[in-house]
Amino acid sequence: MRIRDIRATPVNIPFTAPYVFSYGSIASLTKTVVEVDTDAGVTGLGEVADGDRSGDVLKLRERLIGLDIRDLNTAEKRCLPGMRYTPWSNVAALKRAFAGVEMALWDARGKIDGVPLSTLLGGAVRSEIALSEYFSFRMPGAKEPGEATPLDIARYCGRMVEEHNSDVFEGKVATVSLTEEVEMVKEIRSAIGDRELRLDANYGWTVPTAREAMRRLDPYVIHYYEDPVETLEELAQLRPHTRASFSTHQIDLAKTISLRAPDCIVTNLCELGGIRRTAEFVRMCEHFDVGFRFHSGETGIGSAAYLQVSAALEPVREASQTLFRWYADDLVEQGTPVPKNGKVAVPAGPGLGVTLDKKALTRCHQRFLEEGTFPQGQGGRPFREHFTRV
After folding, report:
1. Do 64 and 211 sit in the same domain of this protein?
2. Do 127 and 240 belong together in one domain?
């Protein structure tokens, strides 16, 4: 079971309608698909979550060819420096690239052994994974009208309850005026009843603005504020000003424990260097009573991986994020999962449980070549400008 070759292909996955967040607007996501061929005739699939990392993945290729796919210690040692920082390399980028390869190694091993990834990780403790329903202001798409007002968003959320029995809602704030967002949350609360409601500011507020926002939003029973401010130190300052919990994409468990903020860390399978390192981190979070869940935006490949990992790790109890409902394309023959009753089933096949659609890979790669990388560094036009131009 040795590595014969590694390929990396950047792809763009479009949304049915561009959505708005604190950095601007986004119509598509760029990911890097990793394929690892083995001498057993099996190809493992992986994904790098943060844009076009094909060059970084291919830099690792020569270091790994011929290695046993089960020898993750040697693979990691060959690919990653033994320090957190070096001026001669981008450690974060290498971790992410290696994570895509490592995901493919797990997939190949599961396919060869004929068992799901969850079994390789110790066995499934759940067969369905809880996921949140996303909302935001959205511009019109090719087949979607989007949501331009607080009432539009509330009606969308209400429709998700009626059609899919969605039970956890999470959406973007720090995009328009606070008065309008308070109105949005008020309308959403009316539409969804007592279901869980989370708000994600993507670091868009200062501490004073966050305090005022929480004063005005808390009456509508907010369960989580995600990344309301830029640093964990600022997040800790907000603790006395809300009844809600905090979540963040920033991964600093030592500081989290010291500051007693956030309550939950939200990330993907790449930031920590792969599935094995993420599983170790989840168990450390559990030991220190810090929550963990996965964030949104992966293709059918990366999503299958985090569903499998969530199935095997009992501490991943809360609903993770998803944008499944908004995808206009995907890469796997099984198609994008469709959440129902706030959950999706764990893929049942060996490895990740999904199969690459080669035609979709070609199509999504061509889209990347035509569009470039998303999200783009300068963000999109301001939300209101989009609607005045439509």
Report:
1. no
2. yes
The helix, strand and coil proportions of the chain, stated in percent and rounded to the nearest 5, come to: 40, 25, 35
Helix extents (H) in 165-288? 178-192, 207-217, 232-237, 253-259, 275-287
Q: Give the domain CATH number at 151.
A: 3.20.20.120
Tokens of 160: 């998700």
What confidence score (pLDDT) does residue 250 get?
97
> For residues 199 and 152, what is the distance between their CA atoms, to the nearest angstrom?
17
Give me the residues paired with residue 170 across strands: 134, 198
Question: Dmax over Cα atoms in the chain, in whole Å?
Answer: 60
Give me 188's structure tokens.
């959403």
> Looking at residue 88, what is its pLDDT?
80
Tokens, residue 224: 């989580």
Q: What's the CA gap between 68 and 105, in Å, rounded?
A: 9
**CA 302 to CA 111: how far, in whole Å?**
16
Percent of the chain with pLDDT over 70: 96
Residue 79 CA to residue 300 CA, distance in Å, equals 26
Q: Do 238 and 210 meet the contact criterion of CB atoms below 8 Å apart? A: yes
Where residue 389 falls among pLDDT bands split at 50, 70, 90?
Answer: very low
Q: Contact, 281 vs 263, CB < 8 A?
A: no
Strand duo 224-226 + 196-200: pairing = parallel
**Those residues with Cβ within 8 angstroms of residue 89's Cβ, 6 or more apart along the chain or in another chain:** 81
Structure confidence by residue, pLDDT tens digits, 80-104:
998 888 888 889 999 999 999 999 9
Can you name the residues that pair with 12 across neighbouring β-strands? 30
Closest Cα to residue 124, out of 103, 110, 134? 110
User: Do residues 20 and 43 make contact, with C-beta atoms less than 8 angstroms apart?
Assistant: no
Let me know whether 57 and 186 are in one domain.
no
Nearest to 29 by CA among 357, 319, 295, 344: 295
Count of C-beta atoms within a 10 Å radius of residue 55: 12
Q: Does the bond joining 339 to the residue before it have cis omega, within 30 degrees of 0?
A: no
pLDDT digits (tens, 9 = 90+) for 359-373: 999 999 999 999 999
Domain assignment of residue 157, yes or no: yes
